[in-house]
Design brief:
The protein is mainly β and 125 residues long. Helix content is 0%, strand content 48%. It contains no helices and eleven strands. Strands 2, 4, 5, 6, 9, 10 and 11 form a seven-stranded mixed sheet that branches. A four-stranded antiparallel sheet has the order 1-3-8-7, with no helix packed on it. A hairpin with a 5-residue loop joins strand 5 and strand 6. The radius of gyration is 14 Å and the shape is globular.
């Protein structure tokens, strides 16, 4: 029933921008967290940006602070990740993620209950 579907990944030059979108269906929630993780081969899936539904607190990876923004449409049916001033180290597969039960922390992938299929972002130098 719960579905997350990412789109918007592409290959861009360093310094460029991309806007990722995640279509949300099958649920509404007043608790938990939603956001974005990314993964490169051979490394753990890491948190990029999440927000806690209960409090609207947002948390960003240190590497993207000041460059990335997370937001929702007014209908809350789409989650966005605006990525500006992209760097080659931002390259990876980006996954929309959600936990729909209360969580003290959504700091790592083990806390996530639902995943999208991922969308590839490649930043060339």
């Amino acid at each position: 029933q719960v579905q997350l579907a990412e789109s918007g990944g592409d290959t861009v030059q360093a310094g460029g921008s991309l806007r990722l979108s995640c279509a949300i269906s099958g649920f509404t929630s007043d608790t938990g967290c939603m956001g974005w993780f990314r993964q490169v081969p051979g490394k753990e899936r890491e948190r990029v940006a999440i927000f806690y539904i209960d409090s609207s607190l947002t948390v960003f990876a240190d590497s993207v602070k000041g460059r990335f923004t997370i937001s929702q449409d007014r209908t809350k049916s789409t989650l966005h990740l605006q990525m500006n001033n992209l760097k080659p180290e931002d390259t990876g597969r980006y996954y929309c993620a959600a936990r729909l039960e209360w969580a003290k922390s959504c700091a790592d992938a083990n806390q996530i209950s639902f995943w999208g299929q991922g969308t590839q972002v490649t930043v060339s130098s």
